[in-house]
């Protein structure tokens, strides 16, 4: 049993609490200054508290607050060297956090799919932390990256779900306009993304080869792909990712001032 405290029960903190509870083997304390924040996660946390003292003995403490709140929490959070502090705040470097605590600091960029244990996460650490490794594995897939790549990881897997939701919505809307029931279109669009993603994860084939496997000469798929190949959608999606990366870098600069 791993003793975990999550500071901040907003969307991301709540997703982590929900996923860890479903995984089992975690004793979860949820902290927030606002008692109303517990409504969505109360059934998943072993305890809820508005007293920061209640999280100070956990083996792993997850700092799941907005970047500008991090310094305020660190002022009152007194952890020991044998504990681990996980920060998920976009743009807040390990050095900034480590200067304010005795605990080992691990930086993670998760995403909301932690809620269903399908999370994609990037992690940066000086040394692998077995408790954090277990948590990330139980919540989905993770990769280890150098911290100077955290801005692009933030854009890719942190902001990426919103980009995917947008694309699912576009496919759902057009299918509904073509006559399909909107709810049916939502299911088919979402499951298509899920299945395609699983195929990529389980295959060693390139993305191009996987596209070719779906396209038959003169068939429906290649007709649609011709529209995409002739459009700017590839660069537009890339530009969205780059914009998110730049904002992550700006947040880092603001946090270090």
From TrEMBL:
Keywords: Amino-acid biosynthesis, Cytoplasm, NADP, Oxidoreductase, Plasmid, Proline biosynthesis. It catalyses: L-proline + NADP(+) = (S)-1-pyrroline-5-carboxylate + NADPH + 2 H(+); L-proline + NAD(+) = (S)-1-pyrroline-5-carboxylate + NADH + 2 H(+). Gene3D superfamilies: NAD(P)-binding Rossmann-like Domain, ProC C-terminal domain-like. Pfam families: F420_oxidored (PF03807), P5CR_dimer (PF14748). It is found in: Cytoplasm. GO terms for cellular component: cytoplasm. Coiled coil: none annotated. One of its GO terms (biological process) is L-proline biosynthetic process. It comes from the Archaea. InterPro entries: 6-PGluconate_DH-like_C_sf, NAD(P)-bd_dom_sf, P5C_Rdtase_cat_N, P5CR_dimer, Pyrroline-COOH_reductase. Residues 147-251 form the Pyrroline-5-carboxylate reductase dimerisation domain. One of its GO terms (molecular function) is pyrroline-5-carboxylate reductase activity. Residues 4-91 form the Pyrroline-5-carboxylate reductase catalytic N-terminal domain. It is an enzyme of class 1 (oxidoreductase). Its EC number is 1.5.1.2. NADP(+) binds at residues 7-12, 64-67. Transmembrane segments: none annotated. Pathway: Amino-acid biosynthesis; L-proline biosynthesis; L-proline from L-glutamate 5-semialdehyde: step 1/1. Belongs to the pyrroline-5-carboxylate reductase family. Catalyzes the reduction of 1-pyrroline-5-carboxylate (PCA) to L-proline. PANTHER family: PYRROLINE-5-CARBOXYLATE REDUCTASE, PYRROLINE-5-CARBOXYLATE REDUCTASE 3. HAMAP family: P5C_reductase. This is Pyrroline-5-carboxylate reductase. It comes from Halobellus limi. The gene is proC.
């Amino acid at each position: 049993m791993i003793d975990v405290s999550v500071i901040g029960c907003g969307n991301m903190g709540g997703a982590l609490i929900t996923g860890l509870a479903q995984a089992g083997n975690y004793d979860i304390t949820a902290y927030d200054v606002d008692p109303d924040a517990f409504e969505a996660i109360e059934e998943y946390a072993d305890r809820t508290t508005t007293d920061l003292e209640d999280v100070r003995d956990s083996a792993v403490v997850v700092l799941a607050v907005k970047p500008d709140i991090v310094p305020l929490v660190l002022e009152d959070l007194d952890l020991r060297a044998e504990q681990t502090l996980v920060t998920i705040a976009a743009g807040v470097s390990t050095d900034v956090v480590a200067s304010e605590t005795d605990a080992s600091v691990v930086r993670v960029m998760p995403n909301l799919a932690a809620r269903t244990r399908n999370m994609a996460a990037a992690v940066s650490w000086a040394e692998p932390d077995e408790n954090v490794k277990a948590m990330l594995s139980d919540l989905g897939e993770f990769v280890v990256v150098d911290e100077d790549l955290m801005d692009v990881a933030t854009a890719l897997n942190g902001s990426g779900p919103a980009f995917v939701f947008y694309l699912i919505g576009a496919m759902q809307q057009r299918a509904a306009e073509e006559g399909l029931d909107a709810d049916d279109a939502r299911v088919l669009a979402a499951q298509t993304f899920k299945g395609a993603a699983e195929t990529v994860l389980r295959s060693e084939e390139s993305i191009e080869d996987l596209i070719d496997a779906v396209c038959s000469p003169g068939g429906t798929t290649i007709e649609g792909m011709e529209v995409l190949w002739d459009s700017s959608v590839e660069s537009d999606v890339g530009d969205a990712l780059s914009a998110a990366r730049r904002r992550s870098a700006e947040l880092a600069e603001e946090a270090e001032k």
